[in-house]
Specification:
Helix content: 25-40%
Oligomer: single chain
Largest sheet: 7 strands, mixed
Strand content: 15-25%
Radius of gyration: 20 Å
Distance between the termini: 40 Å
Strand order of the largest sheet: 3-2-1-4-5-7-6
Structural class: alpha/beta
Low-confidence stretches: none
Shape: elongated
Order of helices and strands: EHEHEEHEHHEEHHHH
């Protein structure tokens, strides 16, 4: 009974395996040559194929019954953008299974106070729970890449730490804090109008990597 959106099906290797098992499946592919190959495949006649950039798509407009489950072996150079897109489309999917570069997976699941802990950890962690499922070595790919990959699962938090109206503000505040991660908050966020009440609860002499996601959420 699952309804699937696949980001970047490529030549349809994963698509071929999943499509027969599910109720509905839509694939978003930006490369017109790959779209033609998918359309010409006899095994994929049931597949709905859209030739578009995923970052320009709204799930609501796809005509697929919501909520959907999302899968994708995504382009590593736009990983962060796709994850932020997932947050923006939060109302229309149930969970997402994505392959990313291992270093990105470590940043997503980083603990407070580590060098990997940063903007991506905080902004994504305010909305999503992340499971690092397993690592994928370069040896299973042809051609062989220079980096390890990781398979991760995103689940939506029952109650996001930040509401939709504050998303843009929150994203910018966290970005400003980590753009100067060696500086104390009172310096990196000195352009923000943060109430004295908040400053009584969060010591602004701390550096950003020492704040929990909940503490960051309290700043807005």
């Amino acid at each position: 009974s699952d309804r699937i959106i696949e980001i970047g099906p490529g030549e349809g290797v994963l698509t071929n395996i999943i499509l027969p098992e599910v109720s509905e499946m839509t694939a978003i592919e930006i490369d017109p040559l790959l779209v033609k190959k998918l359309n010409d495949s006899d095994q994929l006649k049931k597949l709905k194929i859209i030739n578009e950039d995923i970052l320009r798509i709204n799930i609501y407009d796809l005509g697929i019954n919501n909520p959907v489950r999302i899968i994708g072996n995504i382009p590593y150079n736009i990983t962060s953008q796709i994850i932020f897109w997932l947050i923006e489309q939060l109302d229309f999917w149930s969970d997402a299974f994505i392959m990313v570069q291992k270093e990105v997976a470590h940043r997503l699941t980083a603990k407070v106070g580590t060098k990997e802990y940063g903007r991506l950890t905080v902004v994504v962690g305010a909305y999503l729970d992340i499971d690092y499922c397993f690592t994928i070595p370069p040896s299973v790919f042809v051609p062989k890449p220079k980096v390890d990959s990781a398979f991760i699962r995103f689940n939506k938090k029952k109650t996001p730490l930040i509401n939709d109206k504050k998303y843009i503000k929150f994203n910018r505040l966290v970005r400003d804090a980590f753009n100067q991660r060696r500086k104390m908050l009172k310096n990196s966020l000195n352009g923000w109008d943060i109430s004295d009440n908040v400053k009584e609860k969060v010591n602004f002499s701390r550096r950003p990597e020492t704040l929990s996601i909940k503490e960051f959420a309290s700043l807005v």
